[in-house]
């Protein structure tokens, strides 16, 4: 097993459709801001990627409501 390389943040409008992906290429990054989200409910999860390309299962899905 390799060392931690980075993360993927996956998100979407339903917990079952996390169809947007942001790749974080640094294991030392601990925060990321996603801007310009439309109004409504958004669901997010994270998975880790190691230096050998292995990908963890998704974290628990969390949600955030965006209002205007």
From TrEMBL:
InterPro entries on file: FN3_dom, FN3_sf, Ig-like_fold
Name of the protein described by the UniProt record: Fibronectin type III domain-containing protein
Source species taxonomy: Bacteria, Pseudomonadati, Pseudomonadota, Gammaproteobacteria, Pseudomonadales
């Amino acid at each position: 097993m390799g060392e931690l390389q980075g993360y993927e943040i996956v998100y979407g409008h339903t917990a079952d459709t996390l169809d947007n992906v942001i790749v974080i290429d640094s294991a030392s990054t601990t925060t990321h801001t996603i801007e310009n989200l439309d109004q409504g409910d958004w669901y997010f999860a994270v998975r880790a990627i190691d230096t050998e390309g292995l990908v963890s299962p998704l974290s628990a899905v969390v949600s955030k409501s965006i209002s205007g």
